[in-house]
Amino acid sequence: MIHTNKLTKTFTVKKETVEAVKGVDIDVAPGELVAFLGPNGAGKSTTLRMLTTLLRPTSGSATVAGVNVDKDPAGVRARIGYIGQGNGGGHSYRVIDELIMQGRFYGMNTTDAKARAESLMASLDLSVLAKRTVIKLSGGQRRRMDVALGLMHSPGLLFLDEPSTGMDPQNRANLWEHIMRMREEHGTTIVLTTHYMDEADSMSERVIVIDHGTIIADDTASRLKANLAGDLLAVEVAAGAASEVRGLLGRAAAEGDMEENAYDGVVRFRLRLAHGARLAPGLLKEMHDAGAPAQSLELKPPTLDDVFLELTGRSLREGAEV
């Protein structure tokens, strides 16, 4: 559904050349849901703007929905849906009218556009709002209408740019329920950008991370977390047993990846372990056998933010706030 070959974009800023995207290679298969992550300034938005024909590549090539983005941008736009960060509906228009108008823009006759609009409104719980003007919709209702606008022409590929930013948890959950149901019904390929790591983790089948204009990771969320971050183990022992435990845990931790803090006669060790849930019981037994039993233990699975921190030394959340 998406194939890029050394896709590159440079800008000239104050007579200096800035490489925003540095020859990225991306492949997305039909039906996949791929999360495209990276902090502001990493090249994520520029890449998406090239894939959706809003920017022309400086060099390299990209085929989207079977069409070359440089040679036939109108053909790409006819085949994709794009839901940006802003709302797409005109404030003074009714929901049903906006949807029918969108269908007409894509060449549908009025009868077909009305039928399609009614079907989408039913799927997205918008039917009772059909005659309400856009300005009177809540934030969650507007986002659902944006999804309907993006799906009016039944695109095979849908780009979702920060679809739930600013929404409360209930509206976020409702929106994703609708999106996933639409995907199941139509087999739509989805490319998602988000700063909500729980969304990327639970919804996507693949995660692509870009930084400094380069793809630095491309895999399933579970494999990225297992291979790049590991589980976080925190264990407390009596201060007198710290020396024995330090050596035992140090052998299990990644090189240099262990911290310790002493307080009130207790030493707390923190370290990352690959497959921590499998290794932790054995470590506890070794500690007990060595006369240094754990006083407390906490094991946390890694997050995608941990993955990004490991890859770049930065947090995705930090990047989002720059």
Please state how the strands of the largest beta sheet are arranged side by side. 7-8-9-4-10-11
How much of the polypeptide forms β-strand, as a percent range? 25-35%
Radius of gyration (Å):
24 Å
The level 1 CATH classification of the largest domain is: Alpha Beta
Account of the protein in words:
This protein has 322 residues and is of the alpha/beta class. The protein has helices at 44-51, 73-79, 95-105, 110-123, 139-151, 169-186, 197-203, 221-229, 242-252, 276-289, 304-312, 316-321; strands at 2-13, 16-24, 27-28, 33-37, 59-64, 67-68, 80-83, 157-161, 189-193, 206-211, 214-219, 231-238, 258-263, 266-273, 296-300. It contains 12 helices and 15 strands. The strands form 3 sheets. Strands 7-8-9-4-10-11 form a 6-stranded mixed sheet. Strands 1, 2, 3, 5 and 6 form a 5-stranded antiparallel sheet that branches. A hairpin with a 2-residue loop joins strand 1 and strand 2. Helix 3 (95-105) crosses helix 4 (110-123), helix 5 (139-151) runs parallel beside helix 6 (169-186) and helix 8 packs across helix 11. Residues 317-322 have low confidence and may be disordered.
